[in-house]
Amino acid sequence: MRLEWNRHGKSGIRLVKVRQPDDGSGPHDVIDLTIDVQLEGAFTPVYEDGDNAGCLATDTMKNTVYAFARHDPLHHVESFLLRLAEHFAERPLVERVRLAATEQRWERLSAGGRPHPHAFVQPGGEQWTALVVRERPGLVSVEAGVTNLVLLKTTDSSFAGFPRDELTTLPETDDRLLATSLTASWRYRPEAADFSVRGAIRTALAETFAEHVSRSVQHTLYAMGRSALLACDAIAEITLAMPNRHHLPVDLGPFGLDNPNVVFVAIDRPFGLIEATVRR
Amino acid sequence: MRLEWNRHGKSGIRLVKVRQPDDGSGPHDVIDLTIDVQLEGAFTPVYEDGDNAGCLATDTMKNTVYAFARHDPLHHVESFLLRLAEHFAERPLVERVRLAATEQRWERLSAGGRPHPHAFVQPGGEQWTALVVRERPGLVSVEAGVTNLVLLKTTDSSFAGFPRDELTTLPETDDRLLATSLTASWRYRPEAADFSVRGAIRTALAETFAEHVSRSVQHTLYAMGRSALLACDAIAEITLAMPNRHHLPVDLGPFGLDNPNVVFVAIDRPFGLIEATVRR
Amino acid sequence: MRLEWNRHGKSGIRLVKVRQPDDGSGPHDVIDLTIDVQLEGAFTPVYEDGDNAGCLATDTMKNTVYAFARHDPLHHVESFLLRLAEHFAERPLVERVRLAATEQRWERLSAGGRPHPHAFVQPGGEQWTALVVRERPGLVSVEAGVTNLVLLKTTDSSFAGFPRDELTTLPETDDRLLATSLTASWRYRPEAADFSVRGAIRTALAETFAEHVSRSVQHTLYAMGRSALLACDAIAEITLAMPNRHHLPVDLGPFGLDNPNVVFVAIDRPFGLIEATVRR
Amino acid sequence: MRLEWNRHGKSGIRLVKVRQPDDGSGPHDVIDLTIDVQLEGAFTPVYEDGDNAGCLATDTMKNTVYAFARHDPLHHVESFLLRLAEHFAERPLVERVRLAATEQRWERLSAGGRPHPHAFVQPGGEQWTALVVRERPGLVSVEAGVTNLVLLKTTDSSFAGFPRDELTTLPETDDRLLATSLTASWRYRPEAADFSVRGAIRTALAETFAEHVSRSVQHTLYAMGRSALLACDAIAEITLAMPNRHHLPVDLGPFGLDNPNVVFVAIDRPFGLIEATVRR
After folding, report:
1. Which of A14, B173, C156, D178 has the lowest CB atom count within 10 Å?
2. CB of C31 within 8 A of CB of C19?
């Protein structure tokens, strides 16, 4: 028996890069990639003999992607992958490098009629909801909403001043990336008959997310709910659920690189979940 | 022991309505809903005694949604649910009606710089892909693509003239709704260095989908691939995979209603899957 | 430009076969497959010219799978696919046939210590749940449950005698396949301190599902809830949610075949959803 | 306007605990939980004023779960949640605590006819696959396999001796938890007609996973492939894909606790992916 073919690599490397002018002025861009690295080569002793002397750790492949992303302009993903491929091809025993990337698009939000410099929406996934509950004649509740409206801002968000106990390790931050997948549902006043307000409410929610200087998800959630109520008389209350889609800055220090909120890893689980109802 | 609370209903009713002017002129609209019907009431004998005399079949709930959708303008989902709620509230034993809808948005495609009258794209879900395979110096393949680009046209699509054997039951049709979730991947010429063509290729694919008079998914796929190659010299070949996201006209005949391609059910599985590579 | 490669087929064909002795005695078996058919061949005119004369409809592929399943013993999926491959290989223009199947296993349920002749559980997917809500000292609610416990019985289930209105088309049936994905959650009595009852409750639920002669999902749900309360004094009430995972007998009449509850298609959406709470 | 209701918490906390006798002898147990923490209370200033003085960080909730898991016997999840609830109820401003857990079951593997002390299989999710490709008469390939067979061992796995470059940060380990979701596919010899070997191959794969003293995923993969070929003459080769489902020991040092491979966090992405074909 023999090893006929082998391949090893790291899959599902989540890389979110915030691209910004070197002098800190000007608008930000967001590039959101999920990358798979796969290497083939003369790795038979790793398999047959348990000899790891030639086994490039998949953890190192992940580190490589983040380190290269620090200074790569990432104007085209293809070019980024080509640079990575050259690097991996030079590792010992490697004979074939396969790099795949999937890019999730982010669109710039508008606020006040102008493109916002650092707030974004992930197009798609957003769905509209409606709910009618009829108890008896004259007692009918109508709710409507949006779900999975994915929003992100690259700055104007902090989280500090929270209580610390013996189980608290989270550092304070005065500048973080904030992302959420918003679910909002508003209840119409009993007499409401005009159900055309969805667009106005959605605009109020998204613009407030973009422009609010956030001290916490809770703080921004309340501002968004308040804006929605101000934007539309027909609704009596609004409930918002905002999972905190954590994006953590990658520690590039071991590679001699700084990371001034440029290279992030997006975390699926666990996630903070903030929910509240705002009423007139 | 006793039945403390009960609810029964139909969930996941897929309703796609094509709204068009009565005289057949003018542009189409697409409304895409997934509806849950839930009824509470005095149904204890159904549970405790197996007595179905008062048990509204969930299949009938589904029929009701489709029948009501035939002539409802569906300008606001909330109003549609209110009408359905009145109907269900009048069924025997019903005490509480809960109707929930999730709406998937479709945006009108543009073609030739103008909004297309009957072709649509489902915003979101679309992702961009890239793939680099490096075999050795000088032998590097670069591919890029889009995946999950969901397209739909409400007319200009037929499927007829196919062979019939003893296992064929599909009727021929000269006018059907056509929807797909496109995955396209193009291979750059070896010397290509400009990776900025994605937008142009995507436009060529989407516009051809919109404007092609389709005799089959295969027929449209080839036209789309050809357009992409014409639009962009940098690519050598393109591979397309187009699942046929079947939308079947609902048979409203049992309810005394016609259905001239107005009310559809969207089917998840099975699905046709058409794949091909077009090369210069 | 030219068509370099092509493939078309049907994916996601859901086939559930109930295998039973010819004389109707003896235990049933369930085989649950999802099949993909893919054909390659000389189909260029379909793509380039819109000429469907040689285009085997993917709908016919689906019909073929169901018709072949009627009398195939399905002892080994590999053999079934080989027979199908021979058939498709003989269709005009076909040069290569690729058939893939994924099989979902079903295990026979036990009841009263013996294997049940026609009730099954889908191993896996089942998860255990727990929920603690603490309002204030002394006011703490403890619930526990199981979710996604997938059960199926091939007979001893009917649905008839339900009211018919002008929107009712469902025929009555005195013998149908019944399947569900059970979610159950029980609330402990306030003073309960023994949380080891999960196994006993799960057994009561599954055995009652197997042995109950069902007139409706509601009817069986109530019997299951009652059994759980009888099996365990520590719980005060139980809530069950039972989606009706519809399995419809395939109409094989057009192919000259009968179908005495042997060949089914499993439907994902829509689904009936029956929920209730049973309390002491 | 006012804040009518609020709730904040951490969702999707992945906790895998390995329970073992204090003296290190005897078999291990695995408890695999996903926990949601939700707190309600007098948190209005957090929302309305951006005042975080009373805002318990959701990151601290996560830490609390891991710290409590270190010494909790976890015999019943309900009891663990009750202890956590008491702790959270004593935090400032908290008025209501809601704790939900979902438990994924692991079953002990057998090897050599006896229960294995530290190797487990996650029941369910496992599916069986088959693939027939017919090129022309006499040229037919038959493959079969299993997919999503989820295996875990709590010890007898190391990863050390791999090369270190400037991008390597992974520490060496001589004792780690190893988990995978196996996909295996074997190709039958051309003349094979007996397709009943699946059980024997599955047993060989699972037993070898359990008993192999692993120096890497690659090392164990090869041993498993070799065992499968030895167990069954009818197959010519086998291809295995083994994603490394990383389970990382939680750093409990900040809370004054050790963690001798007892409390783990399960990571979804990224994951190592090891693939190979073993042939006679």
Report:
1. B173
2. yes
pLDDT tens sequence across A53-100: 999 999 999 999 999 999 999 999 999 999 999 999 999 999 999 999
Q: Is the dihedral of CA C203, C206, C212, C215 positive or negative?
A: positive
- Closest chain B CA to residue C36: B270
* CA-based nearest distance A159→chain D, Å: 8
Do C139 and C20 lie in a common domain? no
Residue C210 inside a domain? The answer is yes
Cβ contacts (< 8 Å) between B128 and chain A: which residues?
77, 102-103, 105
From D147, which residue of chain C is nearest by alpha-carbon distance?
C102
Number of structural domains in chain A:
2
Better-predicted residue by pLDDT, C20 or B251: B251
User: What angle do the packed helices A198-211 and A217-231 form, to 10 degrees?
Assistant: 140
- The answer to whether residue C180 is domain-embedded is yes
Residue A43 covered by a domain:
yes
Query: Measured between beta carbons, which residues in chain C are less than 8 angstroms from residue B208?
Result: none
- Per CB-CB distance under 8 Å, the chain D contacts of C134 are 82, 85-86, 88-89, 96-98
Bridge-based pairing state of the strands A235-244 and A139-153: unpaired
Q: Based on the domain organization, do D139 and D186 belong to the same domain?
A: yes
| Closest of C57, C275, C270, C264 to residue C176, by C-alpha | C264
Give the domain-ending residue among B60, B84, B104: B104
pLDDT score, position B138: 87
**Whether this model's pTM surpasses 0.90:** yes
Of C9, C43, C272, the CB nearest to B58: C272
Instruction: Name the token pair of B107.
Output: 């945006």
* A118-156: b (≥16 Cβ within 10 Å) or e: bbbbbbbebbbbbbbbbeeeeebebbbbbbebbbbbbbb
Condensed to tens digits (0 to 9), the pLDDT of residues A162-173 reads 999 999 999 999
Please tell me whether residues C113 and C63 are part of one structural domain: no
Nearest to C140 among D77, D85, D124 (CB): D85
Domain of D92, in residue numbers: 8-104
Q: Is C111 in the same domain as C169?
A: yes
Residue B3 to residue A153: CA distance in whole angstroms: 50
pLDDT at position B25: 80
DSSP string over C8-55: EEEEEEEEEEEE--TTS-S--EEEEEEEEEEEEES-HHHHHH--GGG-
Cβ-Cβ contacts under 8 Å, A135 against chain B:
95-96
Best to test chain B binding among C60, C172, C264, C265 (most B CBs inside 10 Å): C60
Which residues on chain C are in Cβ contact (under 8 Å) with B54? 163
ipTM for the predicted complex comes to: 0.96
Q: Are B148 and B274 in a shared domain?
A: yes
List the CATH number of the domain containing D46. Answer: 3.30.1130.10
Residue B23 pLDDT more than 90? no
Please give the Cα distance from D47 to D26 (Å, whole number): 51
Residues of D annotated as catalytic are: 10, 58, 246
Cβ-defined contact of D102 to C144 (cutoff 8 Å)? no
Report if residue B261 sits inside a domain.
no
Which two tokens mark B147? 């995946």
Domain boundary among C68, C89, C104: C104
CATH number at residue B215: 3.10.270.10
d(CA D112, CA A63): 41
Q: Which of the 8 DSSP states describes residue C90?
A: T
pLDDT tens for each residue of A14-47 = 999 999 887 778 899 999 999 999 999 999 999 9
Q: A83 with A100, same domain? A: yes
Q: Chains D/B: 3 or more C-beta pairs closer than 8 A?
A: no
User: Residues B23, B91: one domain?
Assistant: yes
| Distance from the A223 Cα atom to the nearest Cα atom in chain B, whole angstroms | 26
- Do both B95 and B112 map to the same domain? no
Query: Tens digits of per-residue pLDDT, C25-75?
Result: 889 999 999 999 999 999 999 999 999 999 999 999 999 999 999 999 999
Model confidence at D52, in pLDDT bands (50, 70, 90)? very high
Q: Would you call C99 and D132 a contact, using CB atoms and an 8 Å cutoff?
A: yes
